[in-house]
Amino acid sequence: MSTSYPGTVNEDTPPQPTSPENPAGAEDEAVIALAHSLLDAARTGDAAALLSLVDQGAPVNLRDGAGNSPLMLAAYHGHAELVRELAARGADVDLMNDRGQSPLAGVAFKGFTDAARVLLEAGADPDLGRPSALETATYFERAEILSLIQARRA
């Protein structure tokens, strides 16, 4: 079950029009633009932009319309050092998206060993989600990621 929050922003979220009846429309548009820039920075690995926004108070666990957090997006795109910095700033390393996928399962799918190492060091649970990171790494024969998971359990 997902825990999507009201007001979640994604690429399909239409901007609210500004009018005399909706004077806050410009503010709404600015908030949506900020959320888009934060999530885009996570996807592209723009650590300077993303971490600056988070350090200024942007929610580190903001989620898009599919439930993906900045940490999930950074991990899925292989930005291991950005994942480390987000985790250090309080990002939930086990926050699953609306499909029940964890960031660790995402990196196991993609084969990003460095990102998997960072997530495991930050306490990510390899058994979380459907399929779990352990199941995903096994299925795709990600030997290095499986070794990291096994070493964490030892």
From TrEMBL:
The answer to whether UniProt assigns keyword Repeat to this entry is yes
Question: Could you tell me which species this protein originates from?
Answer: Brachybacterium vulturis
Superkingdom of origin: Bacteria
Q: Which InterPro entries match?
A: Ankyrin_rpt, Ankyrin_rpt-contain_sf
Provide ranges: composition bias, Polar residues: 1-13
Check the record and name the Pfam families matching this protein. Ank_2
Query: Which Gene3D superfamilies is this protein grouped with?
Result: Ankyrin repeat-containing domain (1.25.40.20)
SUPFAM superfamilies, alphabetized: Ankyrin repeat
**Chain spans, region Disordered:** 1-25
Q: Which positions make up the signal peptide? A: none
Quote the protein name from its UniProt record: Uncharacterized protein
What keywords are annotated for this sequence in UniProt? ANK repeat, Repeat
Q: Would the keyword Repeat turn up in this protein's UniProt record? A: yes
Q: What is the lineage of its organism?
A: Bacteria, Bacillati, Actinomycetota, Actinomycetes, Micrococcales
**PROSITE patterns the record matches:** ANK_REP_REGION, ANK_REPEAT
* Entries under PANTHER family matching the protein: ANKYRIN REPEAT DOMAIN-CONTAINING PROTEIN 39-RELATED (PTHR24171)
Please report the residue spans annotated as repeat (ANK): 66-98, 99-131
